[in-house]
Each structure stands twice: as C-alpha cells, then as structure tokens.
Write a structure and sequence with these properties.
Layout: H1 3-19, H2 22-38, H3 53-65, H4 68-76, H5 81-85, H6 89-94, H7 99-133, H8 137-163, H9 170-186, H10 205-212, H11 234-247, H12 249-265
Helix pairs in contact: 1-7, 2-4, 2-7, 3-7, 3-8, 3-10, 4-8, 7-8, 7-12, 8-11, 8-12, 10-11
C-alpha cells in the first residue's frame, strides 16, 4: 500500500468509528442548545431584521465556537493513547502501515468526524434563521462561516488533542485544555494577560470580525503581545487562519517520534 492509500484507509476507519460515538453527538447537541438559549443581547437571535446574512451566520459560528471545540477536544483526547490501553498497539505495529500514515489518518478522521456535527449545527441555525428572515443566502453564508471561522480552530484543536495526551495523559490533557480554552479565548485581556484577541485565538475571532464588519469579541483589543493584535480586516483574518493551520503541524510532526518512544519503553 502506498502512504496515501494507508492514510486514506486509516482516515475512513477513524471517521466511521468516531462519527458513531454517541458521546460526540450528545456533547455537540448539549453544548449547542446551551449556547443557543443562553446567548446574550448581542447573540445572533437578537440581530435586527435586515441584518446581512454573512453577519448573521458569522455570529452563529462565533457563538458555537465558544464551547463546541471544548467538547471536540475531550472526545479526541484518547485517539492515540487508547490503542495501548486496549492492547492494540502491538497489532498496529505489525500492520504494513507507517506511523506517519497512522497519525495522519487518525488526525484527518478525527477532524472530519468533528467537522460534521459542527457543520450540521450551523446548517440547522441557517434553517431556523431562513424561516425567520426568509433569505436562503443564509445557507451559503453558513458554509462560508464554517470554513473561515469554525474549521481552522477545529484543525488546531484536533492536532493538539491527538498528540498532547502522549506527553501527559488524556484526563490531565482534558483538564489543562479546559483551562487553556477559557484563558486563551474568552478572558478579557484588559483583566489579565491572555492570548484572547490575538491572531492565535482558535475561537475564530478575527475571521468572524471580518465577516460581521465589527469587532466580534476581542479581536485587535489592546493587551499583552500587542504585535499579535493587528487591526481586524481581511488580511488579519487570513493571517489568523494561516497561523492556526501552521501551528497544527508541529504537534503532528512530533507524534511519530513520541509513539516510537512509547513503544520502545513499553
């Protein structure tokens, strides 16, 4: 098998296994309902009639990005560590699949399996808004908001959720990840030094701000690491997306050496 075929085979297997997990769907549905009914006055349900569809769906994408990635990170946190826990590591080592293809397949399978419910949530929101606003363009903007606001953050979260438990444990990673998420994405930078409002925020603050035409959350706000807080706009949105995708590469590159070290020490 070529590396590409190996990766595709692992991706399909991982996707089928993950997409069937009830915990993935229960977590997504629970967090989406909580966010929908607990949104404040600036939430998408309170946007006035006549609001452009791109602003409506960008607002929904940002709202869902507040908590959904936490649930996805929890679900993906044991994708590599569970093989050893279940006694499958030796079996996988005996298969004609390289570690690189295994890691890439698990990453892509995990990413796509979480992207499906995330996209579905935005499509349901678009359907509800279409019934209220009578603008079918909301579906097209839901897709745009998903690609620009949601997907880069998911790619970032999936990479670290896959690899970091190899350095710690899955339970410890989950605890640290929750702390990081609130510190690095939603903590007001005026109150405490935080990554909130920088180009490194997987929340999608910069792309959402660009689509909405106004500051969505804290993008570009004054604070620590000011050089990572440019004025919001198209260029800043592209830079934020590119940085998140680039930062997803180092943990994936470390996965194969970490797996090799764990197997040698076993």
């Amino acid at each position: 098998m070529t590396t590409l075929r190996q990766t595709w085979a692992v991706t399909r297997y991982e996707f089928r296994m993950q997409i069937r997990k009830r915990s993935l769907w229960i977590t997504t549905a629970t967090l989406a309902v909580v966010l929908t009914f607990s949104q404040g006055d600036r939430g998408p349900r309170h946007l006035p009639p006549g609001t452009p569809p791109r602003e409506v769906m960008a607002s929904w994408a940002l709202l869902m990005a507040l908590l959904l990635p936490i649930g996805f990170g929890m679900v993906l946190a044991d994708r590599l560590t569970r093989d050893r826990r279940l006694g499958l590591a030796s079996l996988l080592e005996s298969l004609p699949i390289g570690r690189g293809a295994l890691v890439a397949g698990k990453y892509l399978g995990g990413l796509t399996s979480t992207a499906v419910p995330a996209a579905l949530v935005l499509l349901i929101a678009a359907a509800g808004e279409t019934a209220h606003r009578h603008d079918p363009a909301l579906f097209a903007w839901a897709a745009v908001a998903f690609v620009l606001v949601t997907l880069p953050g998911l790619a970032f979260v999936a990479a670290f959720a896959l690899v970091c438990p190899l350095l710690t444990t899955a339970p410890l990673f989950r605890a640290l990840f929750v702390g990081y998420w609130f510190w690095g994405n939603m903590l007001n930078p005026d109150l405490f030094p935080s990554l909130t409002g920088t180009l490194l925020t997987p929340l999608g603050d910069y792309p959402a701000t660009w689509l909405m035409g106004e500051r969505a959350l804290y993008a570009g706000a004054d604070g620590w690491l000011q050089f990572l807080r440019p004025e919001p706009g198209g260029a800043a949105a592209v830079a934020a997306i590119a940085l998140l995708l680039a930062l997803s590469i180092p943990p994936l590159a470390l996965a194969s050496p970490l797996l090799r070290r764990r197997n040698l020490s076993a």
